[in-house]
Amino acid sequence: MKRLLVVSAHAADFVWRAGGAIAHVTAHGGEALVVALTYGERGESGELWKEAGQTLERVKAIRHQEASQAAAILGAEFLALDLGDYPLRMTEEAVERLRAILVDFAPQILMTHTPQDPFNPDHPVAYAITEKARQLAAGAGVASAFKTIPPPEFLLFEPHQPELSGFVPNLFLDITPVWEKKLKAMEVFASQAYLQRYYAERAEHRANHARRISGRKGIERAEAFQRVLPQVVDRL
Ligand SMILES: [Zn+2]
């Protein structure tokens, strides 16, 4: 029974990049919570803004409905902090709200964006907020003057252009058994339909890599992650 916390800069990021991981955790009886720092109402909702008379509040409402529906398909809860996008700002309020969520939910696994992304100003800020909140929630792994949680595993999910974002995968997850759920969750985002094909192709490429690394022939779809912290094991 694992608890997974996914911090998504914008309302839809979690689906493309970690939808399989979320569905995997919940399919095995675990709990998943998705925290979207913003709705991506300005920077990642371009199709919605093509409608005449569109408003910020309406775009946010549509994105909330879409993200909640996608999270439900994956078996996760969805929580939006509505901190504003393009630009998302690294504020003490943002860090404190996420720290409180971390202490309350106490995840064993924490996921977010890479610290670099030359194509998006908000994704690295989401990393910075998450990293600081993680440190404040877990302390230094020892007793502190404040309530702490055991340090969660810290993973980065795959950015849109991995090489240009300094992403080097060192963990592949076989998402073949939950692929249909991820596909259904991606289909919810009518406003970003062009990404569905892209991430379906990416899942096949990563499965090819995972098969070659492991020799496991049954892997048809995979997601790639990068560990921030070393893995601690009892035996090799
Ligand atoms: Zn995004």
From TrEMBL:
Coiled-coil regions listed in the entry: none
Keyword set includes Transcription regulation: no
Presence of keyword Cell membrane: no
Family annotation (Pfam families): PIG-L
Against InterPro entries, the record matches this protein to:
GlcNAc_PI_deacetylase-related (IPR003737), LmbE-like_dom_sf (IPR024078)
- PANTHER family with a match to the protein in the record: BLR3841 PROTEIN (PTHR12993:SF29), N-ACETYLGLUCOSAMINYL-PHOSPHATIDYLINOSITOL DE-N-ACETYLASE-RELATED (PTHR12993)
Name the record gives this protein: Putative LmbE-like protein
Name the species this protein comes from.
Thermus oshimai JL-2
